[in-house]
Design a protein that fits this description.
The protein is mainly alpha-helical.
């Protein structure tokens, strides 16, 4: 094998590795954004629950505050669905073996959706 073919082969391998690394990095960024949106959704659901509790106990509420939180939850759920779709597309398009990122469905309770029943992992 000549030096030229050896370097060509090495260059091809490095390019393939670079593509795999970039795909994993891109998916990792999406995973982080998904976790952030899920955390915001959890916090909004908590706030909504506290408002409902306050209302049921006779406390004062700002008019429309519950509706605002419900709309925010809907928006966040749409964002989560969009990000999950992007992640699944990235996994489908990525070179073999490029994704070594933890599946968000197997994360701790901090990332779980309290409005959905538990699913088998």
């Amino acid at each position: 094998m000549t030096k030229s073919t050896l370097f060509d082969r090495l260059n091809q391998e490095l390019e393939a590795f670079g593509k795999k690394a970039q795909a994993a990095l891109d998916e990792g960024k999406l995973q982080i954004e998904l976790l952030r949106v899920r955390r915001r959704k959890d916090n909004t659901a908590r706030d909504l629950g506290l408002l409902v509790h306050r209302r049921e106990r006779g406390g004062n509420l700002e008019p429309g505050r519950i509706d605002v939180l419900l709309a925010r939850l809907d928006d966040l759920q749409a964002d989560i669905a969009r990000l999950e779709l992007q992640i699944s597309e990235a996994r489908r398009k990525s070179p073999a073996g490029a994704t070594a990122v933890v599946d968000t469905h197997a994360t701790s309770a901090a990332g779980s959706d309290p409005t959905q029943p538990p699913t088998a992992g």
